[in-house]
Amino acid sequence: MDLYPLAILIGGPTASGKTNLAFEIQNKIPSFIVNADSMQVYDKLNGLTNVPPKKNLVKHSCNLFGFVKYPKKCNVGFWSDSVQKLLLRSRNNIPIFVGGTGLYLESLFGKISPIPEISQKVKNKVDKLFLKLGKNIFFKKLQKIDYSYSEKISKNDTQRILRAITVKVGTGKNMTYWHKRISNKIFKKVLYVVIFEDRKVLYNNINNRCLQMLKSNVVNEVSHFLKEKKSISHPLHKSIGLYSLEKYINGEENFDDTLQSFCLDTRRYAKRQITWFKNKSTNSVKLNFSDAKKFILKNI
After folding, report:
1. What is the pLDDT of residues 135-177, one digit of tens each?
2. Does residue 39 contact residue 49 with C-beta atoms inside 8 Å?
């Protein structure tokens, strides 16, 4: 795919105003919005994960919200592939990526390998074959399927040999293929802003949002979800507030205690996001909401 002319990336902690900023920018330029939040990709718990109302999704040409059907899982590789397919269909407008999942945003710079998640079934199959054939034969197999990668590692590096064979079996592509994708640039120009508001303002936003959620239909949404919740490990099961609301629904906590724990968990999550963006998003400009808007519109 040819380099896309421009992309706008908007990151930051929860309740910092990322989506509202994306909406305001989208109103002013020919553009479309792409979700970069790892929880908002799913078709369940849209209220709890704060997916914008459907009318706003339509109005602002939003994409990749609720597009993964639970209990299917989404990772950065699957999301990256979905983005590339979307870009192929939408070359005339500017993509505005918005979300609090830093890994998704960073993957747009080609820094993170988009290797899809390998199933446990495939991993177990390769492990059994390794125990049967041994390290030397496995390394010879690696030389046949990916000579270039085999030249870069030691024949005694069991972990990397196993990983390389597993990736080939699980994806049909070898490590050299995936490593080339890491270095691929997608965009000619990127405007990457991370919204950092005053901590008091952010926490006040969080407290108000949590209160509004508890007063809305989110409790019913969670109640319905718990009835169909699968007995598997899944990212949605770790949604902020799910545990507190489950206790509230089961009568183990009253409204006030639930609100307090919900707010506390969300503030802790915001702190982790702030730390991540401070340390990892080296390509970004850190600004408050107002200055972020001015920066984007000035530099388009």
Report:
1. 999 999 999 999 999 998 889 888 889 999 999 999 999 999 8
2. yes
Task: Identify whether residues 212 and 191 lie together within a single domain.
Answer: no
| Bridging pattern class, strands 4-11 and 94-98 | parallel
Q: Are residues 176 and 35 in the same domain?
A: no
Q: Determine if the pTM surpasses 0.85.
A: no
Do residues 48 and 189 both lie within one domain?
Answer: yes
What total number of domains does the chain contain?
3
Q: Identify the domain containing residue 258 by its residue range.
A: 199-270
Distance from C-alpha of 150 to C-alpha of 143, rounded to nearest angstrom: 6
Write down the H helix ranges in the chain: 18-28, 54-59, 76-89, 102-107, 120-133, 135-145, 147-150, 158-171, 175-183, 199-215, 218-228, 242-249, 255-280, 289-299
Which CATH number belongs to the domain containing residue 68 in this structure? Answer: 3.40.50.300
